[in-house]
Amino acid sequence: MEPRGMKKWRPFATMPEQYIGLKEMINKQSEVAQPVLTEEQTEQMNFTLIEALHTNKQVYLTYYKKGQCITETGFIQFVDSLGNLFIFIDDVFELKNKMRLSELIDVRFA
After folding, report:
1. Which of 48, 51, 43 is closest to 61 using CA atoms?
2. CA Rg value for the chain
3. What is the pLDDT of residues 45-100, one digit of tens each?
4. 71 to each of 19, 64, 66, 108, how far by Cα in Å?
């Protein structure tokens, strides 16, 4: 008698579109709306960003991306408030990330 191996699982993999659709539905259910910040919160974040830039302190950055709030740690390298962007270096992989200030939700010192 010959073993069947992985043949018995093939019928379940015949519709990959179904798995993609289910994954999209699950992701849409976990989405949150982008929080609206007050002028005071925005001003406080700007002061924290500038201070972190000049003192080279590590910060926790919380930002909004594709329906989710993501928190990362890193160092601020560049802030352009007129151009609405900043650059930070990720603590884990030490990669430069360019991001808009409008995506930023919260900045705190680590």
Report:
1. 48
2. 21
3. 989 999 999 999 999 999 999 888 999 999 999 988 888 899 999 988 888 989 99
4. 28, 9, 14, 10
pTM (whole model) above 0.90: no
For residues 68 and 72, give the distance between their C-alpha atoms in angstroms, rounded to a whole number.
Answer: 13
CB environment 37-56: b (16+ within 10 A), e (fewer): eeeeeeeebbebbeebbeee
Backbone angles phi, psi at 6, to 5 degrees: -85, 0
Integer CA distances (angstroms), 7 to 1, 14, 17, 19, 64, in order: 15, 12, 20, 19, 43
CA distance 60 to 71: 7
Pairing of strands 68-80, 96-100: unpaired
